[in-house]
Amino acid sequence: MYVVLVYDMEADRTQKMLRLSRRYLTHVQNSVLEGEISAGDLEELRGHIEALLKDGESVVLYELSSDSLLNRTVYGEDPTEDSRFI
Amino acid sequence: MDRNYHVFSDGRIERKDDTLRVVTDDGEKKHIPIEHAEAVFLHGQIDYNTRLIGFLNDHGVAAHVFGWNDRYSGSLMPERGQTSGRTLVEQVRAYDDPDHRRDLAASFVAGSIHNMRANVTYYNGRGHDLSRVITDLDNASERISSGMRVEELLGVEATARRAYYQTFDAVLPEAFALEGREYNPPPNPVNSLISFGNALVYANCVSAIRATALDPAVSYLHEPGERRYSLSLDLADLFKPLLADRVLFRLVNRKQITTDDFRQEVGACLLTEDGRTTYTRAFEETLEETVEHPNLKRKVSYQYLLRLEAYKLKKHLVAGEPYEPFKKWW
């Protein structure tokens, strides 16, 4: 499945969420990541997120059953393009 | 299914923030989501340290290393998640039993000829007259008999492959004449593409075999005991026509790869970095393509077909189920 993840953390804790979600997804902008993820990995990620969050912080996960359902327009450079060819 | 990541740049690959990071010589930093990685393919000049190896190992991710002209030069394999003395014993027993080994070798040859034929049939229906090649392949296929020695089977395979290579000259434009298969080093663009594609198939088969408890060095059609993972050669033969050759035909005929994507060195014709990237991208897309599997009753990716092949072989050796080699069914 394909997910878009956005987060809002206390200023000095944003790195923590970025580090965590980078293990699963591609970082596209400040506080935004997206990518293909398996159901199992998504469950795992959810668990980590819940453990990490403090009061007043939030994470929003948008799930799609596949990236073909997502109508995605990028202006400027696309950070996910060719992310598997470095 | 997890993905392959390819590093073409020169630089360094390291563990950073609990995931993989590539720092290129230009100072660019790119992260690879470790939880989504099947293997990393290192094509450039890359530095790494032991911390990285431990990290890859923890996540069961292989690193396949390519050297000059992108020849496969080895793999950093994760410690075996699967260890099974019984499987290994059965695998070696089958090798040691002349009849059993011959049967397996014959299956591999029959499967590869079938899959070569599938390519030829496709192009035969598209304005090329390849009926002679088809007849040659059918003849080769019919020659496979239970009384054959492994060397004879290898001969049948070689004859079939020679006939099959005529397809390349018929289907590809003149600038991409094959003029016979040659490698070490490849003398012209087509040979160079075939070698690169075969190396990718081979490395992916190494990953697939590693997912089982099978030992990649004990093989049936190819003679084990050399430096290569010869079981991977056995499996790769089945998939080369489907993966490497189809990608090659498609890219060249659509002019996505042209003679500009190659440079000549002394006696060798090498793909440029652009050319390699184009080819690898198409190759990875192909690995992700899916087909409906008649027995599993669901869609599986081509990459998963490699895995299935290793599982089938293991099941055959351990549980005695008949081994049916992969034959393109669609």
UniProtKB/TrEMBL annotation, chain A:
Q: Function of this protein?
A: CRISPR (clustered regularly interspaced short palindromic repeat), is an adaptive immune system that provides protection against mobile genetic elements (viruses, transposable elements and conjugative plasmids). CRISPR clusters contain sequences complementary to antecedent mobile elements and target invading nucleic acids. CRISPR clusters are transcribed and processed into CRISPR RNA (crRNA). Functions as a ssRNA-specific endoribonuclease. Involved in the integration of spacer DNA into the CRISPR cassette.
Gene giving rise to this polypeptide: cas2
CC cofactor: Mg(2+)
UniProt organism field = Haloferax litoreum
Binding of Mg(2+): at which residues?
8
Q: What is its EC number?
A: 3.1.-.-
Family, per entry: Belongs to the CRISPR-associated endoribonuclease Cas2 protein family.
Could you mention a single GO BP entry for this protein?
A: maintenance of CRISPR repeat elements
CDD domains associated with the record: Cas2_I_II_III
Specify the protein name. Answer: CRISPR-associated endoribonuclease Cas2
Q: Which SUPFAM superfamilies match?
A: TTP0101/SSO1404-like
Which keywords fit this entry according to its UniProt record?
Answer: Antiviral defense, Endonuclease, Hydrolase, Magnesium, Metal-binding, Nuclease
One Pfam annotation reads CRISPR_Cas2
| Keyword 4Fe-4S in record | no
Listed GO molecular functions?
Answer: hydrolase activity; metal ion binding; RNA endonuclease activity
Q: Does the keyword Hydrolase apply?
A: yes
TrEMBL record, chain B:
By sequence similarity, the record places it as follows: Belongs to the CRISPR-associated endonuclease Cas1 family.
Q: List GO molecular-function terms, semicolon-separated.
A: DNA binding; DNA endonuclease activity; hydrolase activity; metal ion binding
Native source species: Haloferax litoreum
Q: Which Gene3D superfamilies match?
A: CRISPR-associated endonuclease Cas1, C-terminal domain, CRISPR-associated endonuclease Cas1, N-terminal domain
What's the name of the protein?
CRISPR-associated endonuclease Cas1
Q: Transmembrane stretches, by residue range?
A: none
**What Enzyme Commission number(s) appear in the record?**
3.1.-.-
InterPro entries registered for this protein in UniProt: CRISPR-assoc_Cas1, CRISPR-assoc_Cas1_C, CRISPR-assoc_Cas1_HMARI/TNEAP, CRISPR-assoc_Cas1_N
